[in-house]
Design brief:
Strand content of chain A: under 5%
Number of strands of chain A: 0
Oligomer: homodimer
Structural class of chain A: mainly alpha
Largest sheet of chain A: none
Chain lengths: 183, 183
DNA sequence: TATGATACCAAACACGATGTTCGGTTTGAT
DNA sequence: ATCAAACCGAACATCGTGTTTGGTATCATA
C-alpha cells in the first residue's frame, strides 16, 4: 500500500462520512462522494468495487474500533470494575458514540441492513456466553436473535434520541432485556 | 372505480406477490411486474405512482386484514378465552401467517423499512394500553419502541424460521418480553 | 346501432445513476 | 533520468425509472 493510496482512501472515507451527516445513504451518489473527496471517478472504482463496498468497508472500520479487544483493560472510560456484561455493553456504547453523527444516515434502508447484519454478527459472538437459557421451551436461536435485535434497536433508538449517556442507555437496555447471567 | 380497473389492480398485486415469493423487492423491476401481470407500462403508472407506492398499497391491504377490528369476537381461531393481550398477539400472528410466503421478500432493505414503519405504527396503537411502566427510570418512548421492535423482529424471525404455530411464536414473544399488564 | 368517455396498449423517449474504458499526467522510488 | 504506480477527466455503454404519444378495446348511454 502506497502513501498516496492511503491518503486517497481516507479522503473518500472522510467525504463519505461528511455526506452521511447531511443525507441518508440512499440519496448519496458516487458523484457526490468523488466531488467531496476531490478524486477522479476512475480512482474511486480502483479503491472500491461499488458504493455498497465502500459502506461495507466503513462498517468494518467502525466495528474494528467498537469491538476492539481491550474490553477488560480499558482505562479511558470510567469503569475499572470487573469485566462483566454490563461494563462490556457500556464500553461498546462509548465507542459507538464517536460515530453517532453519521449513524442515522446509515441506519435506514438497504444501508441499515448492511450495517446491522455485520453488527449483529459481532454481537452474537459477544453474547454467546452471556445468553442464559430461559428455562422454558424457547429456541436458543430465537433467544440469541432476541437479545441481538434488542441491542441493535436500542442503538438505533439512541441515534434518534441523542443526549443520553452510554451509562443511561446501557441501563435502559439491561432493565428491559434482563437476559444476562452474572459471571 | 371500474370493474376493469379493479381487475387490473388485482393482476398487478398478484404478479407482485408472486414475484416476491422468488425475489427480494429490490431485485424486482417494474418491467418484471408488468410482464407478470400482462399489463402495459402506462397502465401500471396510471394505478401507482412508483414501485414504492405499490408496496405501500400492498402493506396497507395486509394491515387492514391483519389488524381487522374483530379481535375479540373472533371464532375461527381456537381462542374463545377473554380478549387479553396474549390472545390478541396470537390473533395477529394467525393473520400474518397467511402472508408468510412473500413476507421474506419484503422484510429486507428499503422495502423492509416501508413495511416495518407502517407495522410499528399499528403496533403502537395496539400496545399503547398494554405497556406497563417498568417502575424504573426508562423513558416511555424507549419502552414502547422496545416492545414494538421485539414483536416486529419476532415476526421477521418467524418468517425465516417457518414451521412454528402462532401459539408457539406468541409464547416465545411473551416469555422473552414480559412487559404486559394483565387486564 | 351509433357515439363518446374511459380504460387500456406498445413503442419511443428523456433522464439519472452506475460502472468501464480510454489516453494522458503526476508522483516518487531507484 | 527513468519507469511503474497511482492518479486524472472525459467519454461511453448499460440499466431502470417515469413520461409522452398515438392508437385500440370496452362499455354505458342515446
Amino acid at each position: 500500500m502506497d502513501r498516496r493510496q492511503r491518503k486517497t482512501r481516507k479522503a473518500i472515507f472522510d467525504a463519505f462520512t461528511d455526506l452521511l451527516k447531511k443525507k441518508s445513504y440512499a440519496r448519496i451518489t458516487v458523484q457526490d462522494i468523488i466531488d467531496g473527496a476531490d478524486v477522479g471517478r476512475t480512482t474511486f472504482y480502483a479503491h472500491f468495487e461499488t458504493k455498497d463496498d465502500l459502506l461495507t468497508s466503513l462498517c468494518a472500520d467502525i466495528f474494528e474500533h467498537v469491538f476492539s479487544e481491550d474490553l477488560g483493560k480499558e482505562k479511558t472510560h470510567d469503569f475499572s470494575v470487573e469485566h462483566d456484561t454490563g461494563a462490556m455493553i457500556t464500553h461498546i456504547l462509548y465507542h459507538l458514540q464517536e460515530h453517532m453523527e453519521y449513524l442515522p444516515g446509515i441506519l435506514s434502508g438497504q444501508s441499515g441492513e448492511i450495517f446491522m447484519t455485520s453488527f449483529k454478527e459481532h454481537l452474537k459472538d459477544l453474547f454467546s456466553h452471556s445468553c442464559r437459557s430461559p428455562g422454558v421451551p424457547v429456541p436458543q436461536d430465537y433467544m440469541m436473535n432476541h437479545m441481538v435485535c434488542d441491542f441493535a434497536e436500542t442503538v438505533r433508538w439512541w441515534s434518534q434520541n441523542p443526549g443520553y449517556t452510554p451509562e443511561e442507555i446501557s441501563s435502559f437496555f439491561l432493565r428491559t432485556t434482563p437476559l444476562f447471567e452474572s459471571p
